[in-house]
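To: structure desk
From: M.T.
Subject: fold request, one chain
Message: Could you run this one when you get a chance? Sequence is below, nothing fancy, just the single chain.
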Amino acid sequence: MALLQFIGDNIITDPFQAIFAIIFSFFVGILSSALGVGGGFITTPSLMIADIEETHAIGTVLFMIIFTAISSTIAYSRQSGLIEYRSGLLIATTTIIGSISGSITSSILAVEDPQLFRIVFVLCLIPIAIKMILYPKERRRGASSEEEIEHDDVVWYGYEKREIYSTVFGLVAGFSSGLLGIGGGVVMVPILVTLGKIPMHKAVATSMFIMIFTSLAGAGVKITQGYFHPDLALFLIIGIVLGAQVGARLVKRVNTIHLQRIFGFMMIIALISIVL
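Reply: Done. Structure tokens follow.
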């Protein structure tokens, strides 16, 4: 009964708001799928600007990102060899832990103004964004995806060193996802490229696969705490699922260098949004 009352209190009655939410999320879906991010770095600040309480905005966006990730993963799975399933599943083990921890932390702090955390978070990501903008790694002509990956010789318990490093740092991606409602891709893609040594196009696809598990964990915490707008989530999901399909088809047509630079600029926008 309480659940029905909660849903009833959160129904959008203005059709123009619903249409705007669908159109807005459609374009977010295109960008998110093409860059391997959940779209939270755009959607969460936008919902806050629309006077939605920050904790509710995070919960709603994390739920939306589940469908962004699923839609993108389905589209990428049709393109042979793009998703690194082995590495993705391994990294997901820590992003899930991080997402649950971050989501609980954001609820405790009420995300009123965790200024110190945001400053540290931004300072850690700025060098990565600048590196991707100024020094993107160029794809060699005629090189296969496997040839682009620089494998490490060290193997621990069947896993290469690059996979272990990516998994450890995946905890950071998961925590940022749950705490700030940004999906985690803005952190995960640079980790996969720099530490996992996965080519950019594969990193984008693999990031979306990992995001399914990350967003499920974070959204689950928020929903059980009641920080969730079901009607708004529905309209956002409709647009973002359609947009994600379009974005996944565009990603292979974009030059690797251009894609990395676009992603770098999007990271800068994300960092500014987080600070503001």
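Reply (cont.): The radius of gyration is 18 Å. Let me know if you need anything else for the meeting.
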